Prior knowledge:
This protein is an alpha+beta fold. The protein has helices at about 15, 20-30, 90-100, 110-120, 150-165, 175-190, 190-220, 225-230, 230-245, 250-255, 265-290, 300-310, 320-330, 335-350, 420-425, 435-440; strands at about 35-40, 45-50, 60, 65-70, 135-140, 145-150, 315-320, 360-365, 375, 380, 395, 405-410.
Amino acid sequence: MVKTRRRLMIDGEDEAATGDEYFDELIASKQSDGIQVKPTNDYGKGVYADMDFKEGDLVLKDQMLVGMQHSSNKIDCLVCGCCFSFIGSIEIQIGRKLYLQGLGSPKDVCFNEKSELLMHEKLELPYSKKFPLPGVINCPGGCKEVYYCSKSCAQADWEFSHSLLCTGEGSKSLSQKALSKFIQHANETNDIFLLAAKAISCTILKYRKLKTTCDKEKDKKKNHISDVLGNRNFSLLLKSWKPLLMGYKRRWWDCIALPDDVDVSDEDSFRMQIKQLAFESLELLKAAILDEECLPLFSLEIYGHIIGMFELNNLDLVVATPVEDYFLYIDDLPEAEKKEINEITQPFLDALGEDYSVCCQGTAFFPLQSCMNHSCCPNAKAFKRDEDRDGQATILACKPIKRGEEITISYIDEELELEERRALLADYGFICKCPRCVEEEA
Ligand SMILES: C[S@@+](CC[C@H](N)C(=O)[O-])C[C@H]1O[C@@H](n2cnc3c(N)ncnc32)[C@H](O)[C@@H]1O
């Protein structure tokens, strides 16, 4: 028998066009029944209103499929590694940030000590209890790199992807040393590789779970025929890959926009360098978590498409910080009291500077939001309300939307002039033909 090498499908567009049930089930599971995902006339799939929305109505709250906090944001904000809500206390948030920023800089020693006390909650700030945060739960694998808001979040993340990507003693990776090398490479080059690794890990872990369930069923039925042909495992892998399959994607090195400082004549060599970088990263990841049964996931083609999917889907992860609320509260106190309290809080606010309001920032893939197309005169926007303090994407109607209309968001700052908008949208690989662009071009 001739063995053919199996490849995973990369894009789910054909399935979506033929009325794939995946999005219907997803929408039903989120109870966002006011929307529908279906093919557009011109550019793949899109999201359509299945009811009328008034301005300000909630259109969708979308739970991320995979997400991560940017490595560079980890000093600024201590958040749950699963739901991205802020954890610890106002003291921990402020003290930790000032302490970590102060490390290695010949700053005021006395102030650094104060920051350390704050970080360890040995110093209490006035009114901080008005802003309670969930306690800090350690990673079950002992890595001391990821923390959680609850045991259930820690367990969920462990089962979802972290058990393979943990550098602690309990890690289920092939080699913690290899994993650390992969993480270091990502932090030195592009932390998008960490998100790609998460996407691959969650697919492997889902596959293993499905296989265990199937094995139990198989024992009951004593039916081994499909296993002999090896079809069952591949179809389980396909099933595990499905949520990522549905995302719009292109190869990273083909779709990445040419940076301003790279001349057009050097474009080919720039794209080759990006491909080489992805290859290096993938080799390091293979050394850390390769699973022979999931080999198709580790092809450069798939890796490049996963990264390209994150590039093209414009999905920032943003969670507002309670530290900003805290200082705003202090600022709103009656003058006499404020003066007294400021003596304690002002030095910390001064040390934080403008950074006091830095929110949790990252990248995530939201399965439904990522189906929304762009318009420079959108009828919806991604906007967090006061109660939206987690990593979910919140989409609100910014105009009345009629049932049957396509729901669009703006991928860029829509206040910009036509030429600037065009330049930014080039990163997404299309020229916008929305009514506003057409009118401004005429
Ligand atoms: C986040 S995805 C949106 C969903 C996508 N249409 C799909 O089929 O999955 C972004 C991609 O959709 C396409 N797209 C979105 N808005 C567009 C527009 N206004 N005109 C042309 N293409 C658009 C571009 O290819 C873009 O890179």
